[in-house]
Structure formats: C-alpha cells, structure tokens
Specification:
The complex is a heterodimer. By secondary structure, chain A is of the alpha/beta class. Chain A contains 13 helices and nine strands. An eight-stranded parallel β-barrel of chain A has the order 2-3-4-5-6-7-8-9, surrounded by eight helices. Chain A has helices at 12-21, 33-42, 54-60, 69-78, 92-101, 137-146, 163-180, 187-194, 198-207, 223-232, 241-244, 249-261, 266-273, and strands at 8-9, 26-30, 46-49, 83-88, 105-109, 130-134, 150-153, 213-216, 236-239. Helices cover 25% and strands 25% of the residues of chain B. The chains are: A alpha/beta, B alpha/beta. Strand 1 (8-9) of chain A pairs antiparallel with strand 7 of chain B.
Chain lengths: 299, 201
C-alpha cells in the first residue's frame, strides 16, 4: 500500500517536543564559542548565545539588544547541542533574524530592553519555537496563548539571588493547584482574574500542569539553588551569569548539571558542592529600585 | 516471575522519560524510573528516552551505566532507544562525540535533517504494526546510515533511509512515539519484552 505521506515542519508537536527533550537538564548562558564548548563538555542540554551575560548587561546599562549574528553563528558552529538566543520583547524582526540564522529556540526575554511595552511577538507565526518568561500563571498562559512552546519563570536575572525565582515558581505551581481544585463552573472567573485564555485555564484544571515544559531562571548560582528549583517542581533550569561569573566555570557547570539530575539526593549535591570556589557575587533584590528590576518587563 | 506485573524501566537521567512511563502505564506495564545502575536488576526491559545525546552519554559514564548496561544487554535484557536513545545504542557515529555504547550494529548520523526549524512529522509504515500509518515525530533526529546483517529495518522514510531498526531484543527509533497518543510502538516493545521472559521450549 503506497501511503500518501504528509510531511509537516514547525508543528506544535515538534516545537513543544524539543523542550521535552531538554527536561531534567541545564541550559547555560555563553558569550563565546570557547564557553559553549565548556558548557557542552559539562553536560549542558543547550546553550543560550549572548553578547553579555545578564550581570554585565545590568552593570553596563543602556539599551540591550539581540546579539551580533557573527557571535551567534560562531556559537552555533562550536557545539552540537541546541543553541538558543534572545530577542527583545515584541521585537518580531529580531526574531525573524534569529530564525534565519538557524537558532533552535528563541527566548523573548525581559533581560533585553523591551521593544514594545504592550505586545509580545506573535509566536504562532514562526516555525522556530519560543520560550518566554513569567512571574505567575496568568503570564505563563498568555505567552502560551501567543504560541510560546516552553515557559521559564523569570526570577531576577544577573543577581545570583534565588529569591525571585522561588517566588515565581511557587506562584505558578500554587496557582495551578488552586485551579486544579476548582469546580468547573469557577473556571471562567478564574480566567478573568488571571487575564488568561479560558481554554488554557480549563486545560490546567483538567491536567494539573502547564501544557508546555516549564524551566526556572533568574538567580541560580549554586548546585543547591538548581536542586531547590527542581524540588519545587520545575522541569529544568537556566543558569545565566552563575557559571561564567564563578571562579571555576567548568567545575561549577558540571556540579550544577549533576545537582539538577540528582535533585532529590542530598548526599550527591553535598559531594558536588565541595570546593567549587566562589559563586558569582550576589545582589539584594529588596534594595533594588524597580527601574533596575528586569522581571517587571512584559506583562 | 509468574503473576508479577511486567516491568519496563525508563532510563531517567535526562530527557522525556516521563512520557515513556505514561505510555507504558496506559498499556498496564509497571514503569519505574531507573536512575542508578543497580536499578537495572529490577526491570524486564529498558527504554532509553529522547533527550540530548551528548548529555545522556556523559551522565551514563559519570553514573557508571556503561559497563552495567552493556553486560545486561549481552545477557538478553530488551532495550529500546528513541532518538537520543538510538544514538546511545549505536556502534558508531559520524560526529567525533559522544562515544556510543556499541550495543547495536548500526552507524548513525546525529541531527541528520538540519536544525530545529527542519524538525518534522511524517506518516510511516512500520512492519509488525497494523496497516494504519504511524505519525513519526522527528526532532533534530538521527538517521541510520549503515545497518549490519543482523539488523532489520522495520520503518523507512520515503527516501528509503531506515528510521526504525530491530536487532534481536533491541529496538531503536529515530522518532518519538512517546510524544503521540498512539501507543502501538510501545505495544510492540512490550511484546518483545514478554517474548524474552517466555521459557525456552
């Protein structure tokens, strides 16, 4: 029997599927091909190609934009694991450029200076999948409604301080439990309060989970931080400045990978945490003026 | 063994092992996570899931799975690898790394179809399943370049390249049946595991 085969690319299944392949893994920010190779050797499941890590973006100030394509292509050529890159919130042309460069996942990221204060990119219009940040369940479901195939909690990037990552992960997971426990006739009011699409709220009610993979980001600086986020219930972690701003990046990277795999085994986390040198310097988020906070960008 | 629920473990060091466990549970199979080599003693078969092959191979070595798994497979443990799992089981790869486990007599190319925007779905005919096409989900997928004499291709792309292969009690697929709700390939592997437990006549 000759089957009339239909071949399709850019489907929801292949977009969300790649994120599922990354589960239980660590995605690392890198600024050079050399750093990308260190990350790959340490067991990273993907790298985020950047010009500057978030703590430097924070220090330098000014407008932070998509990275130079030369830099991104160097990193693509250096590794065989997937390569992600960031575009500004709402900057759909930066997203088009990243897609044309062959990036595997686009992060529409609050770490860069937003290009549109009202609208995010229409991610359904792209074949390349997107990951987006969120602080709560409503924000996560709005991004998924726009076509995000993966979610990450925002945390507060470039601080080395886990407190905001914990706040955002607890918020998303707590809200999902609340929706799960509701009667079905309460769901429309919940959708109104969350400012989220009704169909997605209904899906969370039925499954008790997000329809896409959810990683933690923004402030993870140690193996114990990574394991903490995993125990709170996320599917994997992004580590930004935490690796290449530490005193021994190769060892820190490997230790965070091991702690993420064995997040439920304190003896393994203890073992990998020994003698890692200095973690990145940290910042107190409570004393930070709101205009310096990145998580409040986007809605 | 009699009366015990069939147990197929999912190698749970990285990747989409949960999706495999859910598919197996839908078929009434007990599907524990295998995180340490000693846990291989408790399963009748093993699935190596999709994930990042570089990462999975590194963790296989770090946690001491390489020798343990090779020994188990030689002793007859049925194993099925999907995508990254196929790469792990291969005899050789076109890339300089990772170093595969040399379980199956196949040579494999990683990311054989390009980057993520080239990832695709295609209908497949699979030997051993009924005639209805199986929706193959290929994500940065590998392909089999060479298959040894003992290896049987049970599904091919339209261009003829094998994407599902069997060798004795081993099965490898370049695509991801665990991402669909069509459990027929899981059913096929379940029957391979049941077969391996049957006493010789």
């Amino acid at each position: 029997m000759a089957t009339d085969t239909i071949v399709e690319t850019g489907t929801w299944q292949v977009k969300t599927g790649l994120a599922k392949m990354l589960k239980g893994g660590v995605i690392m920010d890198v600024v050079t091909a050399e750093q990308a190779r260190i990350a790959e050797d340490a067991g990273a499941v993907a790298v985020m190609a950047l010009e500057r890590v978030p703590s430097d973006i924070r220090k330098d100030g000014g407008v932070a934009r998509m990275s130079d394509p030369t830099k991104i292509v160097e990193i693509i050529d250096a590794v065989t694991i997937p390569v992600m890159a960031k575009c500004r919130i709402g900057h759909f042309v930066e997203a088009q450029v990243l897609e044309a460069l062959g990036i595997d996942y686009i992060d529409e990221s609050e770490v860069l200076t937003p290009a549109d204060e009202n609208n995010h990119v229409d991610k359904n219009a792209f074949k390349v999948p997107f990951v987006c940040g969120c602080r709560d369940l409503g924000e996560a479901l709005r991004r998924i409604g726009e076509g995000a195939a993966m979610i990450r909690t925002k945390g507060e990037a470039g601080t080395g301080n886990i407190v905001e990552a914990v706040r955002h992960a607890r918020s998303v997971i707590g809200e999902m439990k609340r929706i799960r426990g509701m009667d079905s006739d309460e769901l429309m009011a919940a959708a109104r309060d969350l400012k989220a699409p009704y169909d997605l709220v209904k899906e969370v009610h039925e499954t008790g989970a997000l329809p896409v993979v959810n990683f933690a980001a923004g402030g993870i600086a140690t193996p114990a931080d990574a394991a903490l986020m995993m125990q709170l219930g996320v599917d994997g972690v992004f580590v930004g400045s935490g690796i290449f701003k530490s005193s021994n990046p190769g060892r820190m990277a490997e230790a965070i990978v091991k702690a993420t795999t064995h997040y439920n085994a304190p003896e393994i986390i203890a073992d990998v945490s020994r003698g890692l040198g200095d973690a990145m310097p940290g910042l107190d988020v409570r004393t930070m003026p709101e205009e310096e906070q990145l998580a409040v960008r986007g809605w | 063994m009699a009366g015990r629920t069939l147990t197929i473990g999912a190698l749970a060091i990285q990747g989409d092992f949960l999706e495999h466990r859910l598919a197996l549970e839908r078929l009434g199979v007990h599907a524990p996570e295998v995180r340490l080599p000693a846990e291989l003693d408790d399963v009748d078969g093993l699935i190596i899931p999709g994930g990042e092959s570089t990462t999975i191979v590194q963790l296989i070595d770090i946690y001491g799975f390489r020798a343990a798994l090779t020994e188990k497979v030689r002793a007859g443990l049925p194993v099925w690898g999907t995508c990254a799992g196929m790469i792990v089981m291969a005899d050789s790869l076109t890339d300089r790394r990772p170093e595969p486990l040399h379980l199956m007599d196949i040579d494999v190319s990683r990311n054989a179809f390009g980057r993520q925007i080239d990832s695709f779905e295609e209908d497949l005919e699979i030997d051993g399943l009924d005639e209805a096409p199986f929706r193959g989900v290929f994500i940065r997928a590998p392909v089999v370049n060479r298959a040894g004499e003992l290896v049987k291709a049970i599904a091919r792309l339209r261009d003829g390249r094998p994407v599902a292969v069997r060798q004795g009690r081993m099965l490898a697929t370049a695509f991801h049946p665990e991402l669909t709700d069509d459990d027929r390939v899981h059913g096929l592997f379940k029957s391979m595991v049941e077969e391996s437990l049957r006493p010789l006549p």
